[in-house]
Every structure is written in C-alpha cells, then in structure tokens.
Write a structure and sequence with these properties.
4 helices, single chain
C-alpha cells in the first residue's frame, strides 16, 4: 500500500505544467515578478523546449505589438 502511494506521488510530482501555467510563468519572468517557488517548479517539472518555444512566440508577439503601436502613433501624429 505504501509503495503504491509512493509511486502515485512520484508520478504526480513529475507531471509537466500545462500551457497556461507555462505561459503565465514566462510572462511573469518577462516583467521580473516570478516567485522563487514557481521558478523552482518550472526547472524541476517543465520541459526546456516547451519554455523556449513559448518564450520565443511571446517575444515575437511583443515585438509585433510594439511595432504596430509605433506605426499607429506615427500615422495619427502626422
């Protein structure tokens, strides 16, 4: 019985975070407010490729948003 509980706990602890948790973790690290507890959780349970890919996507979206915002301001200021 104890062995089954330990195996179940081991499976639960290796569970990878879902897409929402990864995205929120990356967004909070972008602005520098991620807690140490979440950082440790990410390094222990998450796949590095998952964080890298989502981080690149968010960075590209941020650059596109910033570029569009500047273009919009330049159009309406002229």
């Amino acid at each position: 019985m104890v062995m089954k509980m330990q195996l179940c706990w081991l499976k639960m602890s290796k569970k990878t975070p879902n897409l929402l948790k990864v995205t929120l973790s990356i967004l909070s690290s972008f602005i520098g407010i991620q807690s140490n507890k979440n950082r440790v959780r990410d390094f222990k349970s998450g796949s590095p490729a998952q964080f890298i890919i989502i981080g690149i996507i968010i960075t590209i979206l941020f650059i596109i948003l910033l570029y569009s915002f500047v273009k919009l301001i330049l159009i309406y200021s002229a």
